[in-house]
Amino acid sequence: MLCPYCFWITNQAIAFIGYDDRDLDREGASRYINQPSYLKIYRGWAIATGGWCRLSGAIANCRAYQQQLSAADRLVTAQTIVQAKLKNSRVLLMRQQRRQSATAIALAIQSLDYLVAQVSQAGSTARLMGFEGAGAASYFVALGECLSGNGFVFTARSRRPPGNPVNAMLSFGYQVLWNHLLSLIELQGLDPYYACLHGSNADELAVPQMRHAVLASDLIEEFRAPIVDSLMLYLVNRGMINAVDDFEFRDGGCFLNESGRKRYLRAFLQRMEESVQDEDGESQPRWDLLTRQVRSYRRFVYDPTRPYQPYLIR
């Protein structure tokens, strides 16, 4: 059964937190649909006002274009996604370096600089994932040096299950963001099971990954550092979350408890509702950045001569 903290409603979709679409049945999803304007897409079906209908037409057309992307176009896009993740991670560390100087932070920044340059030379997604993994390893070591809250220690990323409070916040935040992106992807008519980086071999035609919505995993990469990682630092360093009272250890891992989830989600929603300037100098809430990027990917699908432009922080 879904708890009240497992979803939130926007004017575009209902996104379920901590569950992916395989975990939701029609009855469970419809339990929270009580307004005609709310829409949830589930495996190609749309539910609104209590009724289900198969999506078709423009959506089927979009997905056909998506599946026809060439291996070269997908590889270039995968390179762009990895570079954006590494660059945004580097910028976050540079911001933290202004507040405190640490050897690990300086070394990670140098490493990320080097890897960004190497990504454009990668000839396969396997090699790209290697660069991404190397960057993440050095980045997370440095991220631990940026913590100043009592009781919070972080030396490496651990998941399934997360091993400590910092990993618990990162895992929870990534899942919240991933689920929202998945809803936006389906609302734009894209096939979440066809991607460029995750679950795809750039030397062959992409095959659908029916067990994992890999496109959401692609598009979340550029947002990990500027949204989830920065929020974790904010909560810890401002003392807004407690390493003892807001977490529980169970099933071999560490997880946010009820009070921790409330604190985290309140801060997450506040962060996403804040206005930021886009590349055109216009102010918009962070929610709209996600929508803009999904639409940008959709434009690329229809016209690969217009490459996908990732979200970059400065």
Give me the secondary-structure topology:
Elements: E1 7-9, E2 14-16, H1 26-30, E3 40-42, E4 45-48, E5 51-54, H2 58-67, H3 71-99, H4 103-119, H5 125-145, H6 165-187, H7 214-220, H8 224-237, E6 247-250, E7 253-256, H9 258-273, E8 275-277, E9 283-285, H10 286-302
Antiparallel strand pairs: 1-2, 3-4, 4-5, 6-7, 8-9
CATH class of the largest domain: Mainly Alpha
Return the string of H and E elements.
EEHEEEHHHHHHHEEHEEH
Structural class: mainly alpha
CATH topology of the largest domain: Four Helix Bundle (Hemerythrin (Met), subunit A)
Assembly category: single chain
Helix segment tally: 10
**Helix fraction?**
40-55%
Give a brief rundown of this model.
The chain is mainly alpha-helical and 314 residues long. The protein has helices at 26-30, 58-67, 71-99, 103-119, 125-145, 165-187, 214-220, 224-237, 258-273, 286-302; strands at 7-9, 14-16, 40-42, 45-48, 51-54, 247-250, 253-256, 275-277, 283-285. α8 (224-237) packs across α9 (258-273).
